[in-house]
Amino acid sequence: MYSPESYSNTYREQKLRDKIIELRRKFAKENGLKTVTEVCPKPKDITYSLSHFIEGLIESERSKITEKFKPLAVAKVVSDELLHDKLNKILKKSVRNYSRDSGHLNRDVIFHSRYALIRYLEDFYKEIKHTFGNPADALSPHISELADEIHTTCFTLQFVVNPSEAELLEKVA
Question: Which domain of life is it from (predicted)?
């Protein structure tokens, strides 16, 4: 079955193999060898190792960017009252629209406010990514993980009695 991700990985591996073959030939030529010998590593022997090494470097850079971005993001989220109001409105709307049959109140209700926080952090990162240097142009921080952490550590779920509904309930009682 076709998947864009598998195509992308296969394409990258093929490009990497082609580059390795090119380097093997260059090595043989520069060292006066008539053929590519066993001294030159075979592409299949090093493709996996190189791929892991490259992925490790990329992940390391993403983690560095995330660590630099995290304090800025937390400060921005904590100080933005408009965001707090927006997230509270989303939470109230989610609770109101919650279907008792689903049985997933916590996940369903929190999902919408978490998603809004992710979008907010993505927009904020776009505004300030130029301050992180070249790696930030190609990579972005782990925004969804950061949003989860902020969502669970900086915010609490609060259920406040709606004053108009409270008056109605008092009259009925």
Answer: Bacteria
